[in-house]
Amino acid sequence: MKLMKAGILLTLVLATLPAQASTFKIATLFPDGSSWMQKMRIGANEINKKTQGRVKFKFYPGGVMGNDKVVIRKIKIGQLQGGALTGGSLSHIFSDNQAYSLILKFRSQKEIEYVRGFVDPLIMQGLEKGGLVSFGLVGSGFSYIMSTKRPVTNVSQLRKLKAWIPSNDEAALEAVKAFKVKPITLPLGDVLAALQTGLINTVAVSPIGAIILQWHTQIKYVTELPVLYSFGTLVLNKKDFKKLTTTDQDIVRSVLGNVVKVVDKQNIKDNQSALAALRNQGITFVQPSAAELKEWQKYANDSEKRMLSANIISHKVIGLINKHLEEFRKGK
């Protein structure tokens, strides 16, 4: 009886003690001062206040903790608790998050926004099953072919250039095989130096990405063809996240979810401004002819088939995308 009373008393005492503070160390390649970092810091301060200091965040911007691959490894061993990462770097956790990387699949921003309303939740669920809690996707925008050497309006011209794709991006590697391009794979953080030295001379990147990463300082030509759509996401290690109380989890989900939505909308405007900035910088914009567009689309269709055959993207997700694309294009 005395032991029972002591146990009850201990439980009551523990219940009155303040919850232990949790600090989430978050790394990213995005530089300090970027929209991503500004909004994440605002969100972190809000969480700190709403949880009365129980949940805190410490950020490591600008790649000081390494590239995305290194950050993911550090999350796994507990050195970090999360990161703001590119979608491609997470393909080994959930391959269907590469669905938006299908070449020439989407024609407009409005089209991709409609499809994302159905597919984003599936990607977030897939990442969480893989051990990472995502608070939503942030569109980086459509990527365009950008070259330091010569204009690119057709596939034959692309094959003669030293094109870059991200390291460990199986989907990108399989996709470019259909175009018979032999790419050079490099981590994101090494691309600027590679452009400067001539190790590579062609990249596919969004306008805002080109400017944030300073690649635009080397670019001379942009092909006005939205090749693919890319995104980033803010993730936390699920094991660390689940250590929070249910109340604190709800606060973090709410605040960071809003942060992601704000940055996602802002990026649409920023990409439009970035595209204009590239024009004003004197970069030459080129457009494929109707015949060249037909050629690009042929190889794009082949790349989608290769990705399906290699089980990089599932028939289920491709079917879902095609269904909603058809709905949108028919105005349903």
Could you describe the 3D structure shown?
Helices cover 48% and strands 18% of the residues. The protein has 332 residues and is an alpha/beta fold. The strands form 2 sheets. Strands 1, 2, 3, 4, 7, 8, 9 and 10 form an 8-stranded mixed β-sheet that branches. A two-stranded parallel sheet has the order 5-6. Helix 6 (170-177) links the parallel strand 5 (164-166) and strand 6 (184-186). Helix 2 (35-50) packs antiparallel against helix 10, helix 4 (109-129) packs antiparallel against helix 12 (315-329) and helix 6 (170-177) packs across helix 11. The longest helix has 35 residues, at 246-280. The protein is globular. The N and C termini lie far apart (69 Å).
Global structural class: alpha/beta
Q: CATH-wise, what's the superfamily? A: Bacterial extracellular solute-binding protein, family 7
Whole-number total of structural domains: 1
CATH topology (level 3) name? D-Maltodextrin-Binding Protein, domain 2
Proportion in β-strands:
15-25%
Main sheet specs:
8 strands, mixed
Helix content: 40-55%
Shape: globular
What is the level 1 CATH name?
Alpha Beta
Kindly state the mean pLDDT as a whole number? 91
What is this structure's SSE topology?
Layout: H1 2-16, E1 22-28, H2 35-50, E2 55-60, H3 68-76, E3 82-86, H4 109-129, E4 132-147, H5 155-159, E5 164-166, H6 170-177, E6 184-186, H7 191-197, E7 202-205, H8 207-212, E8 221-223, E9 228-237, H9 238-241, H10 246-280, E10 284-286, H11 290-309, H12 315-329
Parallel strand pairs: 1-2, 1-3, 5-6, 8-10
Antiparallel strand pairs: 3-9, 4-7, 4-8, 4-9
Helix pairs in contact: 2-10, 4-12, 6-11
